[in-house]
Amino acid sequence: MDWLTTLRRSGGINALSRQIGASPADVSAAVTALLPALLAGLRQAADTLGEGDAGVQSLVDVLAELGGGQLAADIMGPGPLDTTPGNLLLDRVLGPEVARRAVLVEAERAEGLDPELGARVLPALAMLVGGYITARAGGSGAEGSGGLGDLADTLTSDVNDSGADRI
Predict the structure, then answer these.
(1) Contacting residues for 44 by C-beta, under 8 A, at least 6 apart
(2) Distance (Å, whole) CA 135 – CA 141
(3) Alpha carbon separation from 54 to 58, 142, 156 (Å, rounded)
(4) Average pLDDT, consecutive stretches of 10 residues, N- to C-terminus, the chain (167 residues)
(5) Which of 39, 43, 47, 59 has the largest CB neighbor count within 10 A?
(6) Residue in 145, 166, 153, 167 with CA at minimum distance from that of residue 63
(7) Contact at 8 Å (CB) between 167 and 133?
C-alpha cells in the first residue's frame, strides 16, 4: 500500500493541515519526512507482538483499544483534536519521548523538517494511519479490500524491500 498516495487521495493531508493549523504543503512535507519512521515502528510493533497474522491481529487490537477507526475520524472531522491517543500509540510503536525526539531530529537532518511542525504532525499522523489500519482490518472497505490477510502481507517486513512507504 502506498500510504502517501492514500493520505493524499483520502483528504488526510488536508485534514491534518486543518487540524494542526499549517499549510497543506508544509504538512505534506512533514508527512513525507515522518511516515517512514512511523511505518517502521508499526511493522516492528507487529513483529514484536507475534509472528505473521498473530502479530498483525495484536497490533490491530492495540489500535482498537486506542480508538480504532475513530482515530482517523477524529482527524478527518471538524471538531477540536485531542492527540492523546496518538501520543499513546507513539509510545507503543516508537518508544518514549526521547525516541520521538530522535525521529524528529533525523527528519530535520534528512528532510529539513521544522521540529516544531513535526512534533505537531507526528501524533496526528499516527492517529490517522492507525485509524486507517483498523478500518482495513475490519473489512470496512474504507481503504480497499480490507481484511486481516491483506494487512498481514503489508504489515510484515519484506527483507527484499526497504518498505519505507509500505505497511
Answers:
(1) 93
(2) 7
(3) 6, 23, 11
(4) 88 96 96 92 90 88 94 94 95 88 92 94 96 80 46 48 42
(5) 59
(6) 167
(7) yes
Grid coordinates of 142: 474504507
Residue 97 CB contacts under 8 Å (≥ 6 apart), including other chains: none
CA distance 92 to 86: 10
Residue 146 corresponds to which amino acid?
G
| pTM of the predicted model as reported, rounded to 2 decimal places | 0.85
- DSSP code string of 39-55: HHHHHHHHHHH-SHHHH
Whole-number Å distance between alpha carbons of 150 and 154: 7
| Coil, helix or strand at residue 67 | coil
Give exposure, 90-112, as e/b (b: 16+ Cβ within 10 Å): bebbbeeeeebeebbebbeeeee
**Which three three-digit cell numbers place residue 151?**
494487512
Alpha carbons 93 and 58: distance in angstroms, whole number: 13
What's the gap between Cα 81 and its chain centre? 16
Question: Considering only CA atoms, which of 58, 130, 60 is closest in space to residue 90?
Answer: 130
